[in-house]
Specification:
alpha+beta, six-stranded mixed β-sheet, 17 helices, about 40% helix
């Protein structure tokens, strides 16, 4: 099938820049494309696949219609195979990359196109979890991701299906340890950096320092590609660590501090293993549910991955922006989670609010953003005032995951203020 020309395919599906930016991947996929009926177009197995994906029977006829359209169109079939191949056959090449909407080519069937391909995920996930020895109940909970994705699509587009930008992330579930335990999902992977974390031996106080070269705005948040602000530095010797601290409320502090060693030891640096937390769709993120999920994670990963101890629970998300207090009350569940963790700034990403508005936010007119929910209205008003939403990150140390305590990191930082002369 390597004779299928990518330019012709992209023209046919009306997505000129859709194939993921690596022509080698396209060539590999076409060479692997089977002759005859593609596996995801087999209507005989469609009812069973729909059931395995925890979807209702009313999906079957709609998905069969999409399968017929794909089978009829050689270019669309080639592109469908390419999507399928990258996510399920060679999942390490599945993310991160953007999939096209296909709205110009398929209209209301666009979301169903990606849902049809997603039916391959349940059997692949089950096989992967069986290989890792995970309990069937954990696999069953994790399989709720497809209905969760579809809830987003129904809210945003009013149709059955899943969004094109969520489909590729199914690859991560079958290429790395990634499970749902209670309300949250957890994924083991190397820490990509953002801050380094240090711990004082005598009392266990934790301090995050900005990575060397981090550019910071006057508001204490990160700058990327902008003028102004200041640049943080970080230097380590056998005797001392010199750098700029991060207030656990989520801001960099423009005050250089010196941490004498061995009083302070390194706790987390880029490349070390972390447990990344993800928040699947579904609401009901009450404090009790969050804590119940946290309690499950350490024991699960210690049992199934004892060779991969993790240094911290981390997450980068829209509600880790330190200015969330300007939008939500202090007793709201996202604010409680902020207070139980060590917040630190991440690269500004207005589109982290996609999960709230289900549409691009960067460059959008705030007046035209959806305002169907109270959180949409509050965030749109915040943006209308000329603010830019950054999002943010937070971390929780393993010993605090099973028994999270409000403001434990903030109290430690207050203890350091006078000792280190920080603000």
């Amino acid at each position: 099938m390597d004779h299928i020309n990518i330019k012709k395919v992209l023209a046919a599906i009306k997505e000129p820049d859709a194939y993921g930016g690596n022509p080698e991947y396209w060539q590999e996929a076409m060479e692997a494309m089977p002759h005859g009926l593609l596996p995801f177009l087999d209507k005989e197995v469609l009812p069973a696949r729909v059931k395995d994906a925890k979807l209702s029977d009313d999906h079957i006829e709609l998905l069969a219609a999409v399968a017929a359209e794909v089978e009829r169109d050689a270019e669309l079939s080639a592109f469908a195979w390419y999507m399928y191949w990258r996510v399920f056959v060679v999942p390490e090449k599945g993310v991160p990359w953007g999939a096209p909407s296909l709205l110009k080519r398929l209209g209301k069937q666009a979301g169903l196109f990606y849902l049809l391909l997603s039916l391959e995920w349940p059997p692949r996930l089950k096989a992967y979890h069986e290989k890792l020895g995970y309990p069937p109940a954990v696999t069953d909970d994790t399989l709720g991701q497809i209905p969760g994705f579809e809830e987003n699509h129904k809210r945003g587009r009013g149709e059955l299906g899943i969004y094109e930008n969520q489909f590729p992330w199914l690859a991560t579930y079958i290429s790395t340890p990634y499970v749902k335990l209670g309300r949250f999902e957890y994924q083991l992977h190397p820490y990509g950096g953002g801050v380094s974390v240090w711990r004082r031996e005598q009392d266990g106080v934790v301090l995050a320092l900005a990575e060397d070269g981090t550019r910071v705005g006057d508001d204490g948040l990160r700058l990327v590609g902008e003028e102004g602000g200041w640049t943080a530095s970080l230097k380590e010797t056998d005797d001392v660590v010199t750098g700029y601290p991060v207030d656990p409320s989520g801001y960099y502090v423009k005050k250089e501090v010196r941490l004498p060693r061995p009083d302070w030891t390194s706790y987390l640096k880029a490349g070390e293993t972390v447990l990344d937390l993800h928040i699947p769709a579904g609401g009901k993120m009450d404090w009790e549910g969050m804590v119940a999920s946290f309690k499950q994670a350490p024991a699960f990963f210690k049992k199934h991955h004892p060779d991969r101890p993790w240094q911290a629970l981390i997450v980068t998300t829209w509600f880790a922006d330190p200015r969330l207090a300007q939008v939500l009350p202090e007793d709201s569940n996202p604010m409680l989670l902020q207070h139980a963790s060590y917040l630190y700034p991440s690269r500004p990403d207005p589109d982290c609010l996609w999960f709230i508005f289900l549409c691009p936010v960067k460059g959008a007119d705030p007046a035209k953003l959806p305002r169907d929910t109270s959180i949409q209205r509050k965030l749109a008003e915040f943006l209308e005032q000329g603010n830019t939403w950054h999002g943010g990150s937070f971390l929780i140390l393993p010993e605090d995951v099973t028994e999270p305590k409000l403001d434990v990191y903030r109290r430690g930082f207050e203890k350091l203020r006078q000792e280190l002369g920080v603000g």
